[in-house]
Design a protein that fits this description.
Helices cover 89% and strands 0% of the residues. The longest helix has 154 residues. By secondary structure, it is an all-alpha fold. It starts with a helix and ends in a 7-residue tail after the last helix. It has 15 helices and no strands.
């Protein structure tokens, strides 16, 4: 029993030691996953293709160590990279996979971030659907009091309001977002805030104010190597320059913007620049060149229209597929939960049976030991009983002997009493007779005293004789 307990203890100790070592390596891998995802996210505005690569590397490590939170974040960052590369079908698949994993582990912040990303994906196709996701994200962000999540949601809601031509409301959300990012000291996203406010002021025909924000934003974006914001800001600046008939400045902005859009491989932004160049050549009255650009745009618009329609259909299909995957995952989770419950149930029952068997074995050994002790005790009791029987028998013999001795002594005492009575009665009777004779004056007084003295002497001799006989029971005659 002691050996089995010792082996169990050593096995548990070895398991814990191994788990500790494994946990140490896991911590290192976990940190690497977090690092890669942060690195990929920071590259989204500079090189979204690198964002996808970093997220894929993080995903491989996270899956290897079964780090669910890291897997979910890797899918989300991968979706962001695909979004900035204008790959909505891949992006929605990435986002929905991430959302299901964050929901599985009850990570509210993760869910909120993904809702915000999905809303951003719908921003150009379905304003109401986009706002629906932004509202979901905002409810979670406010519940968690998470300014880092609230800030981008305000920014994206402002973008939707711009698309719906509600410029003043959009400006209000941009200001809220700008204040939060300033408090968080997020210089990268502050560039986007300045850019968006510049766009709003351009729609409000406050051109000088718009250019102030846009030029400050593009300067900061170039300092931070933010290729995507540079391209988008150039697009807005080109439109402003055209309104002011500054065609050369507009052309420079378009050329620079196309360069940066090609760096990040954003085909949609490149198409927007082509449309802006057509408008520029038309205003310059370069009609032949404008017509060529228009034909190219027409062909591309047809393809883009088909692509947008296909994108919307694919988004819906991906959601349906994702829902099916979610249901499959739920079934799988329920099955795994059942298997775990069954495994632990069997394990617990087995342990209890082992404990019961151990207790039974212990009881059997204890009873055997007790039986041996009882047998020895019974033998000892038997020996003690035999000793007591012998002692009792000896006592009975002693009692019988003493009884016989008492009977003999009683008999002798009886005989002594008879003898004493017989020996003393004579002298006493003589004394009584002498006393009566003396009273009646029939005997001489001196003779009477002499005879009485003789009687007393005889009595005294008899008493001494009987006393000697009493102290010497073996004397002849007694």
């Amino acid at each position: 029993m002691k050996k089995s307990l010792l082996l169990t203890f050593l096995a548990c100790f070895a398991f814990l030691l191994n788990a500790k070592c494994y946990g140490y390596n896991t911590d290192l891998d976990t940190n690497e996953v977090i690092k890669l995802n942060k690195q990929g996210f920071s590259m989204r505005l500079t090189d979204p293709e690198q964002t996808v690569k970093d997220a894929e590397s993080a995903l491989a490590i996270a899956q290897k160590i079964n780090y669910t939170a890291g897997i979910a974040e890797s899918w989300r960052v991968m979706g962001i990279g695909n979004y900035y590369q204008n790959r909505p079908e891949k992006a929605i698949d990435n986002y929905l996979t991430s959302l299901s994993l964050f929901t599985k582990i009850s990570d509210l912040r993760g869910e909120g971030k993904v809702y915000n990303n999905i809303g951003n994906l719908y921003r150009d196709n379905d304003y109401e659907r986009a706002l629906e996701y932004f509202d979901k994200a905002l409810v979670i962000a406010k519940k968690l009091s998470d300014d880092r999540l609230i800030a981008p949601i305000y920014l994206n809601i402002g973008n939707i309001l711009v698309s719906k031509k509600k410029y003043n409301q959009a400006l209000s959300y941009y200001n809220k977002s700008n204040d939060l990012y300033s408090a968080l000291k997020d210089t990268i996203t502050l560039v986007t805030c300045m850019q968006n406010k510049g766009v709003v002021y351009s729609f409000l025909n406050q051109i000088d104010l718009s250019k102030t924000f846009l030029l400050a934003a593009i300067k900061k974006a170039k300092e931070l190597d933010l290729n995507d914001p540079v391209a988008r800001i150039d697009l807005t600046l080109a439109e402003i320059y055209m309104k002011q008939n500054q065609f050369d400045e507009a052309e420079k902005a378009i050329d620079e913007g196309i360069t940066f859009a090609n760096i990040i491989k954003n085909t949609k932004t490149v198409s927007d620049f082509k449309l802006t160049r057509y408008e520029l050549e038309y205003k310059r009255k370069n009609y032949h060149e404008a017509l060529d650009i228009l034909h190219d745009i027409y062909r591309q618009d047809s393809a883009v229209y088909k692509q947008n329609t296909s994108t919307q259909i694919n988004l819906i299909q991906e959601q349906i597929k994702q829902q099916a995957r979610v249901k499959e995952n739920e079934i799988l989770l329920q099955r795994q939960k059942y298997d775990r419950t069954r495994f632990w149930g069997v394990t617990i029952v087995s342990v209890l049976l082992l404990i019961l068997v151990g207790i039974l074995i212990s009881n059997v050994k204890s009873k055997a030991k007790t039986n041996i002790q009882l047998t020895n005790l019974n033998a000892e009791v038997s020996r003690q009983k035999d000793n007591l029987d012998r002692i009792n028998h000896h006592l009975e013999e002693i009692i019988d002997e003493r009884t016989k001795d008492l009977q003999v002594k009683n008999k002798k005492l009886s005989e002594y009493s008879s003898y004493l009575s017989h020996q003393i009665r004579g002298p006493i009777a003589t004394l009584k007779g002498l006393m009566n004779l003396e009273k009646e004056g029939l005997v001489d007084k001196q003779e009477c005293i002499r005879m009485m003295n003789k009687c007393v002497s005889e009595i005294d001799d008899k008493i001494i004789e009987m006393s000697d006989m009493l102290h010497d029971p073996g004397r002849i005659g007694f």
